[in-house]
Each structure stands twice: as C-alpha cells, then as structure tokens.
Write a structure and sequence with these properties.
This protein is an alpha/beta fold. The chain has three domains: about 290 residues, LarA, N-terminal domain (Rossmann fold), CATH 3.40.50; about 120 residues, no CATH class; about 40 residues, no CATH class. About 35% of the residues lie in helices and about 20% in strands.
C-alpha cells in the first residue's frame, strides 16, 4: 500500500455547509461524516485541536483556536460512538506559552465539562507539555525518534480538529501542520528553522490522524496567531490528512505546490499528489464547486497577507523601525524562511493587536537583524536587535546592541527580552495578562513535579544525552 494510504478510498473529502457555530448541528454533521467516510472509532481516542495561541478575549483574542463549538460537537460525536471507552484531548500551544493558559482563555475547560455532562463515555483534556511521554520511532530527515504524550502514543485512534487559517511562513495551517503541537518545547525547537518543512513531514509518521474535522466556518487570514476571520461556512472531514489539506489549500486560494510541507510530503510518497485525485463529496462537489465557494474568503488583499512581509508591514504602520534580513550561512544567498523571522512576525503582530497600529508610528527607530549582513548598518544612535544564532552584521552608531543567541528565537523570547524597549507598551507588562500567565506556569510546573514529568526528563537526559557525552 502506498505510504500515507491507510485504507482504500481514503482520498475522499467530505464538505458540509455550516454557517454558524451550533454545537448540536456540528455534532450531527460529524456523526454523519464518520458514517459516510467509514470511520468507526473504538477504545481510547486521542483528539487534537489547534490552540497555537489564545489570550484574554478582550485584549489579545482567541480567533486563532479551533472554535469551542466545533470541539464540543466533535467530542460528543466521538464519545457517543459505540465501542469508545474514553476520549482525551491534548495540545501544546506556541513555544513560551503555557497550554493551560490558552485552554482557559479559549474556553476549552468549560467546553469539556459541558461535554462530560452529556457524553456516555468520559472525555478528558490534558496539556502535552505536562504529560509523561513515550518514545516513538520516526526514521525521518530531522527526527529519528520523537517523544509524544502517552495518551497519544497509546491511543487506539487519533482525531484531529484543526482550524483552517493562513500562516505567515507556510501559507496555510490545516491537518498536517497541526502535528507541530504534538511536540513539547524541547522536541519542537529541533530544526524549527530552514528544515521546518522536513520536520513537519517527519511528524506525520507519529501523527497521521485516522479522522479529521476541520473548523472552516470562520477561517483565519493574515498572521496565524492573530488572524482576521472571514466566513466560509464549512465543516471539512476526511481520513487522509494530505487530501484534506490539499482541499483546504484550494479554499484559501493556494495550489498544492504553494504549501511547502504539502509539496514535500508528496515528494516523500504521501498521497494524493494532486487535487484531481481527491474525491469531493457532500455539499460541495467538484473542483469548480470548490473554487466557487472559495470566493467567500476573497479578496486576497493586504489583510489576507497581513504580517507575511515584515518590512511591508512596518511601512504600512509608518514605523521608524527597520528590518534587515540576510542569508543564514556564509557562501549562500538562502534565507531561513521558517525560523526567527516567523517569531518576529508573531512578536510584532502581537504588539499591533495589543497596542494598536498607531503605536508603531511613535515607536523608537530600532533595527531588527536576522541572518548575515555584509553591508554596514548605521543604527543612527538607536538600538539594534540581532535575532538568532546566525545573526551577524557590521553596525555603527548603535546606542545598544542586543543579541538573542538562540536558534530559533521565538515570539515569547522577544517579548521577554525586548519588552518595552521598542517604545511600545508590551503585552507582558499588562497585569491582566502577566498574572494569569505566571499563575498557569506555576501550576504546570507543580503538576510536572508531582506526576513525574520532570523526573522522566532528567532520566532521559542522563541516559541519552549525558552518557553519550561522557
């Protein structure tokens, strides 16, 4: 059987119209979808949503997450399936952000409580960054092995519930890229750079879902952590992550070759290799029908591509800040498209979301540098921020040079290190955000201590890393 094909006919993608976030309607659609696509869950189920980031609803917003109504509907459909013993939902949010804080802001804890009042089988919710892990073999280009949460590794079946939205370096995030969230921060940081697409495809070995429910009712455009929502009115289901993502890409105006990790997945032998090989069923059929409904997401304007290009956005905001981006190694013109630059886009997008566009016009004329620059930079008496281990530049007239020597440098690294130095009030300085954040970090740390995650990590370090060095 071709790599990636789990059952005959799994290139089928079912599209159902759903204009509103109505839990009962979504539960019905998911139940019907499982029946139509031949997915019969049994035993212990691992469910994974998209919770890359969620903040205070009135400050940073929760638009980046799978909507709680879709979560509730899907979990109920699973928990009511004959033969299902229990359902456990897990996720790891963006690096530097405690998952339980994002869960709370997104309303997931309340949603799971509501589901448990109605479900015949128990439904749990856990944070991947707090759980004991099992090692699974990958044999990929980046990962030889991977440590994933036991509740995932030992589950009888996996169901992914992604949010369809754009992405500032991958163009789209759907079912395949959702696997980044199965990694705790130590594993997630490995080759989250110019080899990110190789990493994403590697992760399909451990995280190839048996069933997918995509929240495409309101899709996100622009920056993936702080998207603008546009109505598409669809629930998309399938049993093949690549097939589902090819359809999702088309709905956002992209072809398979426009999504780097999908193109690489096909090159490695995952199928289908083109949209013509996908069978579309439900309320939208045929490629022409797909293109027609995709018009609802248009126009492909500046908002659609918001924070894809840092320099363009700084110009839009009339900011005195500058961005200089060079190659990541000597003797090459190649730029790292998926490392520190992604962190910078999310970092600056969070400041715009929090402080507003006007704050950028009055910001200090700072300089951000990623990669290697040959030309001399005149800092004009202002601060220079070198982002990432590979960042190098000839700098003169700098008030201060700060080098965040980390590969890759995340948005949270920049938030904590740069803080208010831009002349824009940082979100981390807002006690409405900071106190709950530090509170959840303390709770997560306590749980990891009590339930053995710290002890397991220390044991792994001694047995696998320290002994090797000795």
């Amino acid at each position: 059987m071709t790599k990636g094909a789990k059952r005959p006919g799994d290139n089928t993608v079912l599209i159902r119209r759903c204009e509103e976030y109505d839990r009962s309607v979504i539960e019905r659609l998911v139940t019907e979808g499982m029946n139509q696509l031949g997915y019969a869950p049994s035993g212990n189920i691992f469910a994974k949503p998209n919770v890359v980031f969620a903040g205070h609803p009135d400050i940073l917003g929760t638009e980046a997450c799978t909507n709680p109504a879709v979560i509730g509907g899907a979990l109920l459909a699973l928990a009511k399936s004959p033969g299902v013993k229990r359902v456990d939902m897990g996720e790891k949010s963006a690096m530097g952000f405690p998952t339980r804080a994002c869960y709370g802001y997104a309303g997931y804890y309340d949603e799971v409580k509501r589901v448990n009042r109605l479900a015949p089988s128990p439904v749990g919710i856990f944070c991947i960054d707090e759980e004991l892990r099992d090692t699974v073999f990958i044999g990929g280009a980046v990962h030889d092995t991977l440590r994933v949460a036991r509740k995932m590794a030992r589950a009888d079946s996996k169901v992914y519930i992604p949010k369809l939205k754009g992405h500032c370096v991958s163009n789209m995030t759907g079912a395949v890229k959702l696997n980044i969230g199965i990694c705790s921060e130590d594993e997630r940081a490995i080759r989250h750079d110019f080899l990110l697409d190789e990493k994403i495809v590697d992760l399909l070995s451990a995280g190839n879902p048996d069933f997918i429910v995509v929240d495409a009712i309101d899709v996100g455009v622009g920056n993936e952590a702080f998207p603008k929502l546009r109505k598409l009115g669809l629930i998309i289901m399938g049993t093949n992550a690549v097939a589902v993502d090819i359809v999702c890409a088309r709905l956002l105006g992209f072809r398979l070759e426009d999504i780097p990790y999908l193109k690489l997945a096909v090159a490695r032998g995952y199928t289908p290799s083109r949209i013509e090989d996908v069978t579309l069923k439900g309320d939208v059929t045929g490629i022409q029908g797909l293109d027609e409904v995709a018009k609802r997401v248009m126009p492909y304007d500046d908002e659609f591509y918001r924070w894809q290009d840092v320099s363009k956005e700084l110009t839009r905001l009339r900011s005195p800040m500058r961005f200089l981006w060079g190659p990541y190694r000597d003797g090459s013109s190649a730029k790292c498209l998926t490392g520190c630059v992604m962190g910078l886009k999310m970092f600056l997008a969070s400041f715009e979301k929090y402080a507003g566009p006007g704050a950028f016009a009055t910001a200090k004329p700072s300089v951000f540098v990623i990669g290697k620059g040959d030309e001399e930079i005149d800092a004009q008496g202002e601060r220079v921020f070198l982002l990432g281990t590979c960042a190098r530049a000839k700098i003169k007239n700098a008030r201060h040079i700060m080098h965040i020597d980390k590969c890759f440098t995340t948005a949270s690294d920049m938030t904590l290190t740069i803080g208010n130095r831009l002349g824009i009030r940082s979100p981390i300085a807002d006690m409405r955000l900071a106190l709950p954040m530090f509170g959840t970090i303390f709770t997560a740390s306590l749980r990891k201590l009590i339930f053995g995650r710290y002890a397991q990590d220390i044991g792994y370090f001694i047995s696998k890393r320290l002994m090797r060095k000795i």
